[in-house]
Design brief:
The chain has about 180 residues and is of the alpha+beta class. Helix content is about 40%, strand content about 20%. Strand 1 and strand 2 form a beta hairpin. The longest helix is centred in the N-terminal third of the chain and has 24 residues. The relative contact order is 0.15.
């Protein structure tokens, strides 16, 4: 009887484990059909850098990431601050030219600051909605919408593009 129980448990694990692994992989970089006339598919929900480095997104991501010239003076000012309580929420559209330009730049800056793990990036559709609804409560009306939170409180927000560099904006914000 014990062998039968072991076989049943093993069979259940063999069925459930692949399903759980598959679900975890689907948590990030979900592609959905687009209603935009310019693109067929979009990333919707949580996005990683790796997701943006795949076709067709990598054509704009890699170029804008690599060519962005960082404002070193502002970066030095930011590095003097304690950033561990800073969180950045960014809502973007892979279909949106402003997001295509600005999000790679933002990601380059947070990598330079060593806080890439403090950036949460979410893809939204043209109606500014995502699969998991993370945008709810954040009044996302434009893409990208980049929200800076310090200890859970919103301290600043950039809509579409910063008036100055991300580094200068963040340095100002933290002063």
């Amino acid at each position: 009887m014990d062998i039968l129980k072991a076989i049943i448990v093993l069979t259940i694990l063999m069925v459930i484990f692949p399903l759980a692994t598959s679900a975890q992989e689907k948590e990030f970089n979900n592609e959905t059909e687009s209603v935009s006339e310019y693109v067929d598919k979009i990333l919707n929900g949580p996005i990683t850098k790796e997701g943006l480095q795949k076709m067709p997104y990598k054509t704009w991501f890699n170029t804008n990431f690599k060519t962005y010239l960082i404002d070193q003076n502002s970066l030095k000012s930011i590095k003097k601050r304690k950033l561990k309580n800073l969180k950045i929420l960014a809502f973007m559209g892979t279909w949106c030219h402003d997001s295509n330009r600005e999000i790679p730049r933002l990601m380059r800056v947070v990598e330079e600051l060593g806080i890439a793990d403090q950036l949460e990036l979410y893809g939204v559709d043209v109606n500014k909605k995502s699969l998991l609804g993370k945008e709810e409560g954040y009044n996302v009306r434009k893409t990208p919408t980049i929200i800076f939170l310090l200890e859970g409180e919103e301290i600043g927000r950039i809509l579409e593009e910063p008036e100055v560099s991300f580094e200068a904006y963040l340095a100002d914000l933290l002063n």
